[in-house]
Amino acid sequence: MGKLGTRRVMVVVPILVAFAAFATVSATAFRGHEPPDVNPHFLVGSRENREQLRALFSLLDAEGNSPEKNFAVVREISNNFFREGEYGRLIHFLGGRTVRLPEDPYNSHHLLMIAYAHMRQGSMPIAARYFDLIVKNYPDLMINGTSIHLTCLLRLIDLNDDPVQQVWYYHELLSRFPDEIDLGVIWFRLAQAYERVGNWDGSIQALANFLSQGSPVIPGFPNAETHARHQVNFHNSARNWTFESLPALASAVRHAFDTNNAVQMRNLQAGANFFTRSWGQDDIISRQPFNVLQFMRGTRIRYADRFHERSNSEEAFLRTWGWPMVISVWYFYFRRIHFPSDPSVHGRWEWVGIYFGESF
Dmax over Cα atoms in the chain, in whole Å? Predict the structure, then answer.
């Protein structure tokens, strides 16, 4: 994964007050002084801007300059190119400098600017390569109080959709920057990345950690908490109530009705994530366990011969009626199980809930 021994080195850039004048250096101050070896290719923009760049280049790498002084000049030249929209020249300038001076302690910053320039040009895959290169091969820098590695990692999780790489990026964020990220969001995204690589145990553990963070809102995934709780609960359950097929499950339920066998019906009920709710109610797990026994004893329940028309290959609804309640019509809800971490139950069926009232 690169030079891992250097990734945790932190070089803090001081506030370069003494060199702030580089931002406004004037051509007058250098009248009559012709800087050596200034490539005309880098002198762009208005006459005033060209003179400013010429003056800055004259200061760059001057005898006696410290690395901090050179960095201040490089930043001003780079910012000038950005303001002028000269992204190609910026890449040329900083790329050449990092190749020529491989030991420059500020190369992380220079490569970051190159990555941003590629983003401005619409070259997102190339930008992602630079962000990845910085994190894995260059020491971290604190620029204006912000870690360059943190900046790169946050960019990479959006730009690089390789799940293996994303797992690595999320772990770096969690281990190195726990106080600077939304832990709940990162744990949930890590769980998704683990799913994509087929590490189901890792995914479940990440979801459990997500729930421990108070279950924050996940952009683009409004039911994140319910999803996570379902997966963790199912993982921690016995999973001994499933049926190989929908016809087999429906046959067992109908037999329990025909024989008025409330105990058998109770055994058919899913042992995790079972819900009871009205149609349109929020998808939440019932807080109180549902006991079908108290509703079947002494009561003759009837059921439909076929599933409701809303049924499909993944879920089915069986209309039943005659329940001793104000709402006497209940729909039993059957669902195909999606749980790849356990191939013995993945794709089987379960009775996982009840909807009260007529379907709409």
Answer: 108
Distance CA 40, CA 174 (A): 46
CB 150 within 8 A of CB 8: no
The pLDDT of residue 65 is 82
Is residue 348 helix, strand or coil?
A: coil
Nearest-angstrom CA–CA distance, 72 and 78: 10
Domain with CATH 1.25.40 in the chain: 163-236
Q: Nearest 5°: CA angle at 15, between 12 and 16?
A: 115
User: Which of 18-32, 65-79, 113-127, 139-153 is the least confident region?
Assistant: 18-32
CATH class of the region 246-356 = alpha beta
Contact 90, 81 (CB under 8 A): yes
Both tokens of 283, joined, read 């998808």
Winning range, highest mean pLDDT, from 32-36, 54-58, 153-157: 153-157
**CATH architecture group of domain 163-236:** Alpha Horseshoe (1.25)
User: Can you tell me the distance from the alpha carbon of 91 to that of 94, in angstroms, rounded to the nearest whole number?
Assistant: 5
Residue 128 exposure: Cα atoms within 13 Å on the Cβ side: 14
Specify whether the CB–CB gap between 166 and 154 falls below 8 A: no
Instruction: Return the HEC string of 93-136.
Output: HHHHHHHHCCCCCCHHHHHHHHHHHHHHCCCHHHHHHHHHHHHH
For residue range 169-218, list pLDDT tens digits in order: 999 999 999 999 999 999 999 999 999 999 999 999 999 999 999 878 89
**Where do you find CATH 3.10.450 in the chain?**
246-356
Residues 314-349: tens digit of each pLDDT: 999 999 999 999 999 999 999 999 999 999 999 999
pLDDT at 27 over 60: no
Place of tokens 């832990």: 183
Q: Are strands 302-303 and 315-321 parallel, antiparallel or unpaired?
A: antiparallel
How many residues appear in the chain? 360
Tokens of 197: 């690589």
